[in-house]
């Protein structure tokens, strides 16, 4: 197959993945609006998405092990993964942009600054500050406290930064043919990802029940959960993918020359880590 280009057979998985994501998004929206009713669709969407991912991964693994992928196909995979990560960069750039717009423009305007200074007539007692603890509209209750960056967020930062190091060691070990070493370090990466999610779950519990940080706590609560929540979803997906890579590595898949599945998972995980560093700085610290 070295001189040919493999054209995969038509696949139903992209369509089914789109349907699963649609159910998942409908479930999230319904959960926020209607409560328990939406949680059923959310759980169904998660189950459908995981099922599609499992079968889709199975088909790709089978094609790879049959030797159907040429060097040209490998380049296509690399370009496809690169463009996917670029799309993810744009995804998070939109949310960081919303945070920047709110902090730099919208909140000062409400305090009477700039061309939108007329807003000061509506809320004359409002004082611009960030985090926005006291929204201008008295009907909106702001958070009581904010999450300290030097406690749980710092712990999670150490977890993710360390996980990038362990994943790099695992990748280098695989390239040198040290499969056992690669498995051990990859297992450490997966465990660190799991620790991150556990700590973030505890942080959400503290923020919601003790600090008053909810989706209804003004623009600060909304942007906080929007940015950290989507990032947590990406960490979850990345941890699932790395777990699959660990299973494949244990089963004897991959070689020092051919292991792009592992490499693509590593690219994704490093991207997620870089996004967290931005979150830590601009959501928690600054």
What's the gyration radius in Å? 22 Å
Helix/strand order: HHHHHHH
CATH topology of the largest domain: Four Helix Bundle (Hemerythrin (Met), subunit A)
Task: Tell me about the largest β-sheet.
Answer: none
What structural category do the secondary elements indicate? mainly alpha
What is the CATH level 1 assignment of the largest domain? Mainly Alpha
Query: What is the general shape?
Result: elongated
- Overall pLDDT, averaged? 90
Separate helix tally: 7
Number of domains: 2
Q: Note the gap between the termini.
A: 53 Å
Strand percentage lies at under 5%
Spans of at least 5 consecutive residues with low confidence: none
CATH superfamily of the largest domain: Cytochrome c oxidase, subunit III, four-helix bundle
- The counted number of beta strands is 0
The helix fraction, in percent, is over 70%
CATH architecture of the largest domain: Up-down Bundle
Transmembrane segments: 12-34, 40-58, 79-102, 150-170, 182-202, 222-247, 267-285
Protein name: cytochrome-c oxidase
GO molecular function: cytochrome-c oxidase activity
Subcellular location: Cell membrane; Membrane
Features:
7 helices; 2 domains; 0% strand; Helix Hairpins; mainly alpha; 286 residues
């Amino acid at each position: 197959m070295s001189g040919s280009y493999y054209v995969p057979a038509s696949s139903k998985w992209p369509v089914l993945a789109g349907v699963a994501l649609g159910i998942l998004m409908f479930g999230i929206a319904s959960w926020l609006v209607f409560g328990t009713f939406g949680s059923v669709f959310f759980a169904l969407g998660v189950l459908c998405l995981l099922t599609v991912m499992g079968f889709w991964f199975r088909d790709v693994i089978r094609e790879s092990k049959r030797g159907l992928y040429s060097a040209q196909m490998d380049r296509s995979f690399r370009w496809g993964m690169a463009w996917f990560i670029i799309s993810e960069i744009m995804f998070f750039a939109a949310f960081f942009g919303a945070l920047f717009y709110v902090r730099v423009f919208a909140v000062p305007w409400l305090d009477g600054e700039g061309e939108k200074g007329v807003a000061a007539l509506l809320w004359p007692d409002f004082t611009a500050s960030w985090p926005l603890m006291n929204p201008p509209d008295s009907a909106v209750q702001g958070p009581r406290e904010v999450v300290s960056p030097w406690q749980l967020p710092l712990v999670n930062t150490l977890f993710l930064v360390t996980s990038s190091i362990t994943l790099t060691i695992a990748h280098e070990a695989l390239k040198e043919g040290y499969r056992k070493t690669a498995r051990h370090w990859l297992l450490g990466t997966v465990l660190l990802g799991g620790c991150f999610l556990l700590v973030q779950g505890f942080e959400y519990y503290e923020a919601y029940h003790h600090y008053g940080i909810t989706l209804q706590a003004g623009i600060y609560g909304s942007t906080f959960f929007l940015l950290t929540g989507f990032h947590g979803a990406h960490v979850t997906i990345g941890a699932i993918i790395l777990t699959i890579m660990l299973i494949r590595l244990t089963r004897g898949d991959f070689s020092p020359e051919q292991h792009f599945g592992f490499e693509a998972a590593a690219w994704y995980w490093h991207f997620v880590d870089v996004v967290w560093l931005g979150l830590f700085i601009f959501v928690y610290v600054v």
